[in-house]
Specification:
Layout lengths: L15 E4 L4 E5 L8 E2 L5 E4 L4 E2 L2 E2 L6 E2 L1 H4 L12 E4 L7 E3 L8 E2 L3 E6 L4 H12 L1 H11 L9 H5 L2 E4 L2 H40 L5 H6 L1
Helix pairs in contact: 2-5
């Protein structure tokens, strides 16, 4: 593998500077017409760009591809350890595919990144790396010139990746994954609290519940 020259200065001993294309294969999602969509439970679930949040895939609605169409899209099936990157609109959001999404399909506005050789530790590291400030800034700068921000496979493939030795790679991936989980938990707490606040406000403002009664409960 050849080092690439762009990016931050000298790296620590044992680190390598590579282009993302040297680690992954890229595949944009397939075009799926409206009539080829169905409920996720009636077909093969489809990951939408808005489902990629906080380095995780969190379905926002039940969307799938009808089985007849899905059978023609086998090369677009996701596998555990794949990475998804939003390529148009809010460019750069990314997530790693888990066993839960194994076999799912993904939207045309997403790139699937698949390692040239299966490596769960490297996949976890890349999920963290792609969400880090340097990589995000790099992607945004290369997609900002269009009216609708868009990133090509060629451009994404040129992204410099700083790869540490295996032990440090594992530690970094685990640390960032743990923080992502904390973000997910706190985001869910905020969402549920917001829903509770809305319901409580309705009850209080209509007299169905008194503030004193709620304070005692």
């Amino acid at each position: 593998m050849n080092d690439v020259s762009n990016g931050p200065g000298p790296l620590p001993m044992g680190w390598r500077r590579l282009a993302l294309r040297e680690l992954c294969n890229f595949q944009a999602g397939p075009a799926v017409k409206g009539e080829e969509r169905t409920d996720a439970e009636a077909g093969v679930p489809l990951v939408l760009p808005r489902d990629v949040v906080h380095q995780r895939i969190t379905p926002t609605e039940s969307v799938g591809v009808v089985l007849r169409k899905a059978d023609t899209l086998r090369r677009y099936k996701l596998a555990e350890g794949d990475l998804l990157v939003v390529r148009t609109g809010t460019v750069g959001r990314c997530a790693m595919v888990t066993s839960e999404q194994d076999g799912w399909l993904y939207h045309a506005n997403l790139f699937r990144l698949r390692l040239t050789a299966p490596d769960p530790i490297l996949a976890a590291y890349l999920a963290g790396y792609l969400s880090a400030g340097f990589a995000q800034s790099w992607m945004h700068k290369r997609s900002a010139s269009a009216v609708i921000p868009s990133l090509s496979a060629r451009e994404l493939g040129e992204l410099p990746v700083f790869v540490p030795p295996p032990a440090e790679r594992k530690a970094i991936g685990e640390t960032l994954a743990a923080l992502d989980e904390k973000v997910r938990v706190h985001t869910e707490i905020a969402r549920v609290t917001g829903e509770y606040r809305g319901m409580l406000a309705d009850l209080l403002m209509t007299g169905a519940l008194s503030a004193e009664q709620d304070a005692r409960s």
